[in-house]
């Protein structure tokens, strides 16, 4: 049971959350964090084994958990999840839309099926999820919180991820519009925009040859790359994203709505400034120190 000043201000204990994509990786971190805060859970995920493990951990914490093995991008499957949720809990207070993903490819190399898939799994399902969740949130009469995961790519020209970036931008603006539409009902909608995180999903978004190349690098080389790219110098772990969900879902954010919270260690703020090595420091392009090392032979 939660006790103490912060727990009382958060007001999460006793609430019910639906977590779409709550089985593994970031979803598991979010689900367990909510469970630790005293929230009962309805989980939907395509990875049945990971979801079962997460559900077991939440049950161990004393929470009531219902699960549905489903692909959230399948309209009938997502409806089945919400039908089960309604039978088991009757209402929810929190919705977290985490499911998503893409594959790096040039737009002109993408098939129409690739494009449709990117739109559905990064925007379409989230619209359906919100539409199903709102009547269940309304039942308490006390409002609620909807948090959807977008990405930093929704806010920059992400070459190689064009449809994904566009779909996530759509989710971001849909969230703003619905925050206005539902504001007087005290139903808040916000987004979390991660950047690079040490997750399987991020690696799966790259072509296989990239993963193989990264696998040949020593860990120190990977960390050096992150030190250059992320002002904080390290990737935010899944737990940092879970903390952001806890805040946005809680009463401490009761007047925060229609916003996007960037949990990225400062990459959005940097806007292309990288901490180049060899004395160049934070600049958009490498200076003489780095260029000399890279092209000392004139190539």
How many E-type strands?
A: 9
Question: SS-based structural class?
Answer: alpha/beta
The end-to-end span amounts to 63 Å
Provide the CATH superfamily: NAD(P)-binding Rossmann-like Domain
> What is the radius of gyration computed over CA atoms, rounded to a whole number of angstroms?
20 Å
Number of domains: 1
CATH class categorisation? Alpha Beta
Q: In percent terms, what proportion of residues is strand?
A: 5-15%
Examine the coordinates and then state which fold CATH places here, giving the name of the CATH topology.
Rossmann fold
Largest sheet: 7 strands, parallel
Mean pLDDT: 91
CATH architecture descriptor name = 3-Layer(aba) Sandwich
Helix and strand sequence: HEHEHEHEHEHEHHHHEHEEH
**Oligomeric form:** single chain
Number of DSSP helices?
12
- Uncertain runs are none
User: What does the overall shape look like?
Assistant: globular
Strand order of the largest sheet: 3-2-1-4-5-6-7
Keywords: Oxidoreductase
Family: Belongs to the short-chain dehydrogenases/reductases (SDR) family.
GO molecular function, one term: oxidoreductase activity
Protein name: NAD(P)-dependent oxidoreductase
Walk me through what this model shows.
With 299 residues, this protein is an alpha/beta fold. The protein has a single domain, classed as Rossmann fold, CATH 3.40.50.720. The chain has 12 helices and 9 strands. The protein has helices spanning 5-10, 26-36, 48-60, 75-89, 112-138, 162-181, 200-204, 208-216, 219-229, 238-249, 267-270, 288-294, and strands at residues 16-20, 40-45, 65-69, 94-97, 144-149, 187-194, 260-263, 274-276, 281-283. It has a 7-stranded parallel beta sheet with strand order 3-2-1-4-5-6-7, with helices on both faces. Strands 8-9 form a two-stranded antiparallel ribbon. Strand 5 (144-149), helix 6 (162-181) and strand 6 form a beta-alpha-beta unit. Helix 2 runs parallel beside helix 3 (48-60), helix 2 packs across helix 10 and helix 5 runs parallel beside helix 6 (162-181). The longest helix has 27 residues, at 112-138.
């Amino acid at each position: 049971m939660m006790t103490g000043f912060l727990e009382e201000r958060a007001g999460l204990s006793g609430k019910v959350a639906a977590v779409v994509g709550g089985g593994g990786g970031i979803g598991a971190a979010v689900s367990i964090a909510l469970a630790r805060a005293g929230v009962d859970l309805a989980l939907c995920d395509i990875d049945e084994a990971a979801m079962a493990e997460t559900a077991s951990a939440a049950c161990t914490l004393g929470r009531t958990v219902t699960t549905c093995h489903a692909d959230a991008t399948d309209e009938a499957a997502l409806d089945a999840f919400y039908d089960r949720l309604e039978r088991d809990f009757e209402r929810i207070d929190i919705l977290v839309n985490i499911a998503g993903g893409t594959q790096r490819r040039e737009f002109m190399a993408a098939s129409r099926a690739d494009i449709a898939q990117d739109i559905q799994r990064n925007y379409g399902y989230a619209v359906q999820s919100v539409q199903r969740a709102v009547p269940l949130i309304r039942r308490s009469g006390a409002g609620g919180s909807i948090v959807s995961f977008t990405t930093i790519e929704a806010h920059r020209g992400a070459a190689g991820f064009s449809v994904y970036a566009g779909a996530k931008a759509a989710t971001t603006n849909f969230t703003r519009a619905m925050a206005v539409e539902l504001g007087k009902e005290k139903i808040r909608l916000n987004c979390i925009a991660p950047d690079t995180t040490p997750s399987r999903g991020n690696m799966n978004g790259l072509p296989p040859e990239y993963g193989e190349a990264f696998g040949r690098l020593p860990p120190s080389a990977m960390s050096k790359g992150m030190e250059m790219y992320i002002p904080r110098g390290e990737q935010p772990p899944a737990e940092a994203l879970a903390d952001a969900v806890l805040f946005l879902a809680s009463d401490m954010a009761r007047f925060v709505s229609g916003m996007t919270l960037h949990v990225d260690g400062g990459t959005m703020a940097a806007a292309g400034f990288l901490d180049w090595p060899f004395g160049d420091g934070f600049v958009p392009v490498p200076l003489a120190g780095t260029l000399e090392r890279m092209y000392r032979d004139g190539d």
